[in-house]
Description:
Layout: H1 2-10, H2 36-72, H3 77-82, H4 89-99, H5 105-117, E1 123-124, E2 129-130, H6 131-164, H7 169-184, H8 187-201, H9 214-242, H10 246-253, H11 258-296, H12 301-310, H13 314-342
Antiparallel strand pairs: 1-2
Amino acid sequence: MSAISAGGSGAAGGAPVAAGRTPPARPAPPLPATGGRPGRARGLLRAVARRIGSGIVVIWAAATTAYLALLAAPGDTVDILIGDGPDTPEIRASIIREWGLDRPEIVQYLSYLGRLLQGDLGRSYRLQRSVGDILAEGLGPSLRLAVAAAATAITLAVLIALLTAGRGPWARRAVSGLELLAVSVPTFVIGIVLLSVFSFSLGWFPVSGDEGPASLVLPALTLALPAAGVLGQVLREGLEKALEQPFATTARARGLTERALVARHALRHAMLPGATLVGWFVAQLITQAIITEAVFGRPGIGRVVLQAVTGGDMPVVMAVVILSAVVFVTVSTVLDLLYRVIDPRLRSS
């Protein structure tokens, strides 16, 4: 009787427990699921949604800045939009009607944004053509040049990093000097040197134009060399740090060869900062393409921008500003998703 009473007074909820026995433990509440495919999918969707939201803000800011620059430019807005184009009463009336210059400023601004949302980039009154058509013609050659330059830069950088990581000090110094030279020399000087050697002297590649893959080699190399110099340095340092980490020691102890260790593990660790620099390089391509396409006489966005600036073609200039923002947002979004492929720790964030 005393045993039952003692057990009853010590049991939770008043349930009688025999003396000398431990009451059964209550099951712990289930922990929320943080991993697995659903968690990774939610993290990816959140990242894409954040990027799209911030990208819309960046594009809106670029379009608004271009519009405010048009309003802030000295002189009459109609004269600025005409530029060096023909000036007739009919064209002036068309500009006033299209841009809504006879309406309140807020209505003009909202009308401008509305046209952009519909894909209407305006009209070049100097060339008497749609701005969208002008950019579409130049976008193809510039895109081919950008892809070729990016692929060349990444290939050269990876080869430089793999061949020089962990090597002796003399090899590192020699390669570092070449990388510093590639970064320091202006792009147009690199282009002129390549033209002088491989086109004028050796005759291996055409001097100008956009006819076939051969005409793409020297312009792509001109854009790729400075980027490869920076990327090579970053990838080499990343590889050397990765090869000193504990996971590398463990992999070696398990019999993994040095080449397999670099290819399977160390290179992935070194690629994360390199991916950021690739984004910087792609964002700089539009600026560098203006000089490179002028040196090699290539068609493209660079030539379009140069002609628009020298001819005062403000609608084309404004459209190029917006196009640059779209390229920047696209590259940033792709890189953000690429980070999650390279580093699994970011997939659930």
